[in-house]
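User: Structure please.
Assistant: Input sequence and predicted structure:
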Amino acid sequence: MSPELYIAAAGVVLALIVIILLFKIVWRVAEPNEALIISGLAARRRGESLDSLGFKIVTGKGTAVLPGFQTARRLRLDTRAANLQVSCVTQQGIPVQIRGVVIYKVGDDLSSIANAARRFLDQQDFMTSAIHELFTGHLRSIIGNLTIEDLILNRERLTSETRASAADEMSKLGLIVDSLQIQEIDDETGYIVNLGKPHAAKIAATARIAQAQRDQEATEAEQIASANMAAARRDARIKEASYQAEIDQAQATSRQAGPLS
């Protein structure tokens, strides 16, 4: 092979390497649990209602990002958890401690992703704090209109009302709630404990009455069994005595008949 061919082949290989390196430098791929937010030169999304944002959103695929002219940042779309610990006062003026958890995420639609990107892109760890403050305020407001009995007996009402009241603000933040759970409701006054005492006492009394009835039934059954056994022994003795009397009479009759013959 001539030197010219060697040079040409080396040039082709070098060009391929350069192309591959350039491709790796400019190509970005959005993972299934994230969105790429691309800002900079020509980064507007065309033909959609989000043109005014000034950045492009890419999900589930790759795109070219021009170094020096464009910047690609990643926004996580997976679920997150915000633990709630809220001090509230009920409608009765009783202070309570509410502990729960909010499972939330960035919405999957482009509008939600855009809203979340504008607020949290450079401070995504702040999302949990924002959710905590948001739900703390709504819980305090809703619990202020409920009694402790409402909280204990209808916890689902508390969670549904809280989710509904926070829906508009969550939408503005680009976030959605997957789950809201109220895990514990405590009070320092002992109201909840005292609330359950009459019911517990009633159950204990019912249990004692049931046990007394069972003991009485057992005693009566034992008495009946003893009486039946005594009656059976008496009947046996009577039958035995009658049988013995018949034997004695037969023997006496036999003795009387003997000398006459």
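The first strand starts at residue 27 and ends at 29.
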